[in-house]
Amino acid sequence: MEANCSSSSACPANISEEEQPVGLPAPGNLELVFAVVSVLMMSLLMFSLGCSVEIRKLWLHIKRPWGIAVGLLCQFGLMPLIAYLLATSFSLKPVLAIAVLIMGCCPGGTISNIFTFWVEGDMDLSISMTTCSTVAALGMMPLCLYLYTLSWNVEQNFTIPYQNIGISLLCLTVPVAFGVYVNYKWTKQSKIILKIGTIVGGVLLLAVTVAGLVLAKEYWNPDTALLTISFIFPSIGYVAGFLLALLTHHSWPRCRTISLETGAQNIQMCITMLQLSFTAEQMVQMICFPLAYGLFQMVDGILIVAAYKVYKRRLKNKHRKRNPGGAEGCHNKQPTSSKETSAFLEVNEEVAVTPGSPEPMDSHMILEPTGHISSCA
Questions:
Q1: Residue 292, Cα to own-chain centre: how many angstroms?
Q2: How far apart are CA 355 and CA 295, in angstroms?
Q3: Which of these, 149, 36, 135, lies nearest to 97 by C-alpha position?
Q4: For residues 37 and 81, what is the distance between their CA atoms, to the nearest angstrom?
Q5: DSSP secondary structure letters along 205-238
Q6: Average pLDDT of the segment spanning 129-143
Q7: d(CA 264, CA 34)
Q8: Which of 59, 291, 317, 355 is deepest in the core (most CB within 10 A)?
């Protein structure tokens, strides 16, 4: 027994500091600072985004959770299935296939909230979806992993990072609650906090992403199939979430929200789960995927935001040309095509998206008109 253990790289007694070059190094001060900054960044970002949430609208999503239900179906139905199909289609090694599947089973990440704000989506739905998917991950992650690994004959026991999930929930709910309170008590000040917070949060998010890639540059795996999956996986998630939301008759802002919530995964939770479940030698092969996924989901999200901004600007210019002497939005009779196009952009679309006839009591819950629509004199 001693001889066998001495020849095994997985033996805990033999993983010494001298042998760390073949695996992941022990966390240093730089990694600790990076983790602390990431938590602070997420807390400050969620506080600023919480300043855009209204208790009345948030309660509507909880009371009629059709949007949340569709989001959870995308998160724990579509994403694990897509991950499984990609892993089997590319004939990945078992270790790499598990990394792809774990990423697909993770809940939504904070990055989806800031992207949702930038594309004028439903912030109340976005934050409630992120919170609910994080809570649901306590049971859905092990269930999805068990179901999809049955055909793989995997003997590895997965360790669900419950502590990490708890920290994520605290970083989500507590700052958001403070932000909602600030928005309720001081509406004007909350708008200033929201504008500053989203800009600073976007810059910090980009900085943390770049810093994380630099810190883990030595672990990049040149596996072409794995990098290809990390490139197309977020894009498929964004498109699949949008199509499912569209098929379930959600408004355009909600479609954009569910799309971003589906494709943007919690990268930190995936990395933590890999670290808890696998040896250092296996981690060297697997760590590349969540890092590459995080990079490409950021790139895809920025492209979606840029495309939305360009489309919105073109639509405004088109309206100005049609109404050169009148105020924007003052025409009462729009062509049908113009109405359909405007529906994609306006934030003041009806919230009634549940199937069937809407309740009369919910008619006052329609979102407020946006500031750029001027009233007719």
A1: 15
A2: 37
A3: 149
A4: 33
A5: HHHHHHHHHHHTGGG----HHHHHHHHHHHHHHH
A6: 90
A7: 21
A8: 291
> How many angstroms separate the CA atoms of 130 and 294, rounded?
17
pTM of this prediction? 0.74
What is the average pLDDT across 113-140? 90
Structure tokens at 13: 């007694």
Q: Rounded to a whole number, what is the largest CA-CA distance in the chain?
A: 89
Which residue is associated with the tokens 């296996």? 282
Exposed, middle or buried, 99 (CB in 10 Å: 0-12/13-18/19+)? buried
Which two tokens mark 311?
């489309």
| pLDDT tens-digit readout, 49-66 | 888 888 888 788 888 889
- Note the residue count of the chain: 377
Buried (b) or exposed (e) across 173-186, using 16+ Cβ within 10 A? Answer: bebbeebbebbeee
Higher pLDDT, 16 or 247: 247
Which amino acid makes up residue 114? I
Task: Identify the band that residue 330 occupies on the pLDDT scale cut at 50, 70 and 90.
Answer: very low
The tens digit of pLDDT for each residue in 70-104 reads 999 999 999 999 999 999 999 888 888 999 999 99
Angle formed by the axes of helices 66-73 and 224-247, to 10°?
150
What lies within 8 Å, CB to CB, of 367 at 6+ separation is 57, 253, 347, 348, 349, 350, 351
* Model confidence pLDDT, tens digit, residues 332-349: 444 444 444 344 444 444
321 CB burial (10 A radius; 0-12, 13-18, 19+): exposed
The number of C-alpha atoms within 13 Å of 158 and in the hemisphere containing its C-beta is: 26
> One-letter amino acid identity for 10?
A
CB 194 within 8 A of CB 49: yes
Cα–Cα distance for residue pair 199/206, rounded to 1 Å: 11
CA-wise closest residue to 252 among 363, 113, 260, 299: 260
Question: Which one, of 137, 154, 300, 140, lies nearest residue 230 by Cα?
Answer: 300
Mean pLDDT confidence for 145-163:
80
CA distance 136 to 295: 25
Q: Which residues of 151-169 are buried (b: 16+ CB within 10 A; e: fewer)?
A: eeebeeebebbeebbebbb
Measured over the CA atoms of residue 26, residue 264, residue 67 and residue 369, the dihedral's sign is positive
CA distance 190 to 6: 61
Angstrom distance (rounded) from CA 196 to CA 41: 13
